[in-house]
Amino acid sequence: MATQQTRSIARFMMAPSVILLFVWMIVPLLFTLWFSLLQYNPLNPIRDGFVWFDNYKLFYSNPAFLYSILNTLTIVVSVLVITVVGGILLAMLLDQPIWGQGIVRILVISPFFVMPPVAALVWKNMIMHPQYGVFADIARFFGAQPIDWFGQHPLTAIILIVAWQWLPFATLILLTSLQSLDGEQKEAAEMDGAGFLSRFWYLTLPHMSRAITVVILIQTIFLLSIYAEILVTTNGGPGYASTNLPFLVYQKALLEFKIGQASAGGVIAVILANIVAFFAMRAVGKNLDK
Amino acid sequence: MARAVTTQHKTIATAAAWVVALLIFFPILYTIITSFKSEQEAIQGFNLIPSGTFESYSEVQQQSGYFKFFFNSVLLSVGSTILALIVAIPAAWSMAFSPTKRTKDILMWMLSTKMMPAVAVLFPIYLIFRDSGLLDSRIGLTVMLMLINLPIVVWMLYTYFREIPGEILEAARMDGASLWNEIIYVLTPMAVPGIASTMLLNIILAWNEAFWTIRLTTTNAAPLTAFISSFSSPQGLFWAKLSAASTLAIAPILIMGWFSQKQLVRGLTFGAVK
């Protein structure tokens, strides 16, 4: 029973959060929209002016922009596939009765708590370094030529690092979901003679479907804006081989000071994120009704 | 009837799980091991037994003043979390206990702000920070981190508060408790566990935030994320030092993280998976 008084108190208590978030979201976004229609370079102000949608035309005339979108999507999709498939397998393994389950869980979840620059630098220098890295040691042990990961396969290297960071997250959430699966259902299926594969396909997978959806959506939000991992490993190179959209926007804005182009990139990033957000909202929103 | 587990099955599962877990943990383990090597040892090929020297740790502090960055990280993550809690607790409280038709929309909208990519507002924020003298200031970055994590904080608190039975509040009201008494004596004791978990998760997220903390700082306010990123251009051999700095940077949060696995699932899935 909400009276008029409690309702106005409620509104008053909500106001700071709502106003803060509104201002923080809307004001800079309007700036970005406005900048994206300008030619604006603080280093070379003579040519500044209103150019309508010229900045957006770069997205199909300048290969850097096209590359960056392709790379962004490649990172998102590859990491999702690795972490979701790997996460399902790992969750099913950890769901078995094993000795030392607590410690195993701690070991598996750990990479998620490693800050991105540390994760990237450790992989770059200690694991993937073509001379001193562990991968190089392993390759030499088998008499093979060590791979120059960041020179030859920069995007693959970044995908590996990011997947390492997010696999624990997927595993933890899928494991949580798996543990809520009714044991009796599993037994009943087993009694009825359902094999491992059909049990997995008709019982386990449908049970995990919501957790899988949540993992995909949340990871996509974060994966669309991978930044530090690229900054400390390849710096976007060689060429544009590992530049994603956030990194390109950063380069254009803070290194080249091409604010108009950077802003157009930012707007595209918002549109990409909104497409994802649309689906994310529906999935999370459904849960709210319960 | 519980399913009988054969010892053989358990042995195989245990072996497989431990192998996979150790592989996943290996980069962290190897970093810790390397941090106790000398620079010479660190590049002499694969070796799991360090000589046990602490020289890298003292060098990291002497050459680059590690503890300044550490202190900034603590200040920024704890400060922004407390700020976020101050703003979010009333909001989450009112949404959980006096929901209106629009509560759900507001929650959704808050979540949507979290989905806005940071780069989309990079330059305007940079301008605002530069023109108001907030670049490389601890206050500016604290507010920034607070805003970034505010939606998650509101959401997490909301899911916890919603589980507090409303009848208890009504009973307290019937007995004539004022709003203030209601908050102090009835609500707070029940809400503290939820607030603590929210705080824990949010400190972890703020500690590891690696876009704004790198871009909006140079030296004064730079936390560990910015400090570690400065190692990306190698000068000479620095494997052991990098390992020592990395170990120090991740240790506190790793330990906190181990204790907050359950809350992590809940907080990051916005209550959708428990």
TrEMBL record, chain A:
The organism's taxonomic lineage, starting at the top: Bacteria, Pseudomonadati, Pseudomonadota, Alphaproteobacteria, Hyphomicrobiales
Annotated keywords: Cell membrane, Membrane, Transmembrane, Transmembrane helix, Transport
Ranges that cross the membrane: 12-35, 64-91, 103-123, 155-176, 208-228, 259-281
PANTHER family (alphabetical): ABC TRANSPORTER PERMEASE PROTEIN
UniProt-recorded name of the protein: Sugar ABC transporter permease
Domain of life where this protein originates: Bacteria
Location within or outside the cell: Cell membrane
Domain ABC transmembrane type-1: 69-280
Family: Belongs to the binding-protein-dependent transport system permease family.
From TrEMBL, chain B:
Name of the molecule in the record: Carbohydrate ABC transporter permease
Membrane topology label: Multi-pass membrane protein
Any one cellular-component term (Gene Ontology): plasma membrane
Highest taxon in the source lineage: Bacteria
Pfam families, sorted: BPD_transp_1
Subcellular location: Cell membrane
GO biological-process terms attached to the record: transmembrane transport
PROSITE patterns for this protein: ABC_TM1
Record key words, sorted: Cell membrane, Membrane, Transmembrane, Transmembrane helix, Transport
Domain named ABC transmembrane type-1: residues: 70-260
CDD domains in alphabetical order: TM_PBP2
TM ranges: 12-33, 69-94, 106-129, 141-161, 182-207, 238-259
